[in-house]
Amino acid sequence: MSSRPTLLIVSYHFAPSPLVGAKRFSFLTREFARMGFDVHLITNGIGDSPHGREDTSLPVNGTVHRVNAPFDVPLKGGGWLHRFASAVLRRVLAPVGLEYFWARAATRKALEVAGKLPPGVVIATSPPHAALIAGARIARRLNWPLILDYRDPWSAYDWPEWHRGWISQWFARRIEGSLVQRSAARVLNTPSMRDWFEEGFPKAPAERNFVIPNGFDALPSGQPPALAGPE
């Protein structure tokens, strides 16, 4: 068993995925490892990606545990039954996202991994929101502190392309609110996002809301800071 402090990170996207969500924690886990943490990352299994070619230049640090959802939404298959079921699932899952079923598999894997580790902290990054749901379940089962990392807002800001009906938004706000209430701290990637979050969740202690932007690549002490490429 490691004597180093444990960080258990739940990130649906991770290297070598080219998505921003994968890049953010590829670089952050590198910094956590440099700081002496024993980093374990729970992420989605590697498969065919619709987001472009893999970025093999991304750093990979810590121990990566990949797990797949029991099935993907929309369902595979071109029959009318698959299309109908997918349409129903899209509406039902609108408050939490189509990756919701991955949360159960991620939770199971994380608890299996944590059984061999000393107590630590759970960090869950969103989107997709399933990562926050999984992170909250894991932290509750382990009785570890939970940190929520937001790359995009969930219910605190209604993006036009993510627009939900009022019923879906009602459920989304209450689900997110319960996770926020359980969290020890929140991290957002812009000051304006933090402002939106604090307006949406005024009961969350503001002194526990932090900003860590994308795009900053730390350098060794004594060297001038510089902006890296987009993360």
List the SSEs and their pairings.
Layout lengths: L5 E6 L8 H15 L3 E7 L18 E5 L12 H13 L9 H13 L5 E7 L3 H13 L3 E5 L15 H17 L2 E4 L2 H10 L8 E3 L20
Parallel strand pairs: 1-2, 1-4, 2-3, 4-5, 5-6, 6-7
Structure description:
- The chain is built from six helices and seven strands.
- The protein is of the alpha/beta class and 231 residues long.
- The C terminus is likely disordered.
- Helix 1 links the parallel strand 1 and strand 2.
- It has a seven-stranded parallel β-sheet, sandwiched between helices.
- The radius of gyration is 18 Å and the shape is globular.
- Percent helix, as a range, is 25-40%
Work out the strand percent.
15-25%
How many distinct domains? 1
Individual helix count: 6
The poorly predicted ranges are 223-231
> What is the level 1 CATH name?
Alpha Beta
Shape: globular
- State the assembly state of the protein chains: single chain
Q: By helix and strand content, what is the structural category?
A: alpha/beta
Classified in CATH, the superfamily is Glycogen Phosphorylase B
Spatial strand order of the main sheet: 3-2-1-4-5-6-7
* Overall pLDDT metric: 87
Main beta sheet, described? 7 strands, parallel
What is the CATH architecture annotation? 3-Layer(aba) Sandwich
CATH topology: Rossmann fold
Q: How many individual β-strands?
A: 7
The sequence of SSEs as H and E is EHEEHHEHEHEHE
Distance between the termini: 33 Å
Q: What does the radius of gyration come to?
A: 18 Å
